[in-house]
Amino acid sequence: MSTLIDFPVKPETRPYLDAFRGIAGEPDWLERFRRRSLDRFAELGFPGRRSENWRYLDLQPLAKNPLLPAARGHETVVPAELLIEGRGVRLVLVDGRFAPKLSRLDLPEGVWLGSMQRAIAELPELVRAALEDIAQPFAALNAAFFADGFVLDVAPGVVIDQPIEIVHLASAAGSLHTRSLINLGAGSRMTVLETYIGPSENNARYWRNDVAAWQLGEGASLTRVALVEEGADAVHLGEVAATIGAGATLDGFVLLLGGDTVRHEASVTMTGDHAHCRLDGAFIVAGREEANIVTTIDHTAIGGTTSELIKGVAAGRAHGAFQGKIIVREGAQQTDARQTSRNLILGRRAVIDTKPELEILADDIKCAHGASVGELDEAALFYLRARGIPTEEARRLLVEGFLREAVDGIAHPAIREHLLGRLGARLARLESE
To answer: Which of 83, 180, 196, 362 satisfies CB 3.0 to 4.6 Å to 149 for a cystine?
Structure first.
């Protein structure tokens, strides 16, 4: 399937337009959606630093050196150290496609979990309702090219205590476009751990473009934790759009530990009264790595609460950034929102930018934000060294203590300990980078 576009396009989009073929056998409505999305991407092109939302990330290397959709990779073994212990439910995607041999889908009643391709056939109305986000350029490109992803649909009132693992494993060069959906019925509750893994031995250059929609019904509760440990030369762009119903709770956390260029964006709309949202996160960058966390939380109803804590560490010549915006609409009285960004610089050439914002259109509210960027506490470092702790170990302990505050907010003990272990492994390598 080829496409014909009769309007001027941005030159950096041309290789992707030429590579577009679609997927045989898909329904007509999806084919039309893909074509419309490709047109949108051709019109928008790659965002540059003049775009406020992308000002802290350099996408010129990606724009100048296209990464076209990757071929199907070979199913491989998921590293055991990147999985939580236990025999719970696990869905694995290899190079953006469902890998049934690596997955374990023993599902309780009331839970549907499977590949996006299967959901298109079995749950078309649910999928169609979620395939609307093509306003942003890479969401539009994703909509045109996504080969697979996952859909998690939970019936009203279903409560699952054991976390569900979703593993995104990359093994091939090129671009990987995945589209996913989490839909929680009223009163349901569950925890999801998503892990993004790149090749540990060969430095394959790949671009992961991941887009997801989350829908929380009245009184539902979703805890979602994301761990990003991509390959050394990888580009990771993740985008989430969430809607939260009345009395529902979204508890999100993201830990960015690996990848050359990594960006995690979450846009949350609180559509129901007395909804709750917590978005915490942390990142470590070293060498010449870049990492951005971008959030927008839009309060449109009464009595909502928001809490954000983002922590960053940068070493070498790395660049980290946090951009967070909380919007309180005119009718969203009694909103309580707090946003905090704290950052640590290790070395003279590392840079961290932080930009918390509040846009308040209501008067009966409590909102606050704050940001800080600093260096290691020399007094604390001297204290540890004076007690016989070597300098490198003392620095590691201080950095770990700084970041741990954000990780400690994760309620599920197995996930919390798993992330602390991965954080410790990353910090052990930090001094050598």
So the answer is: 180
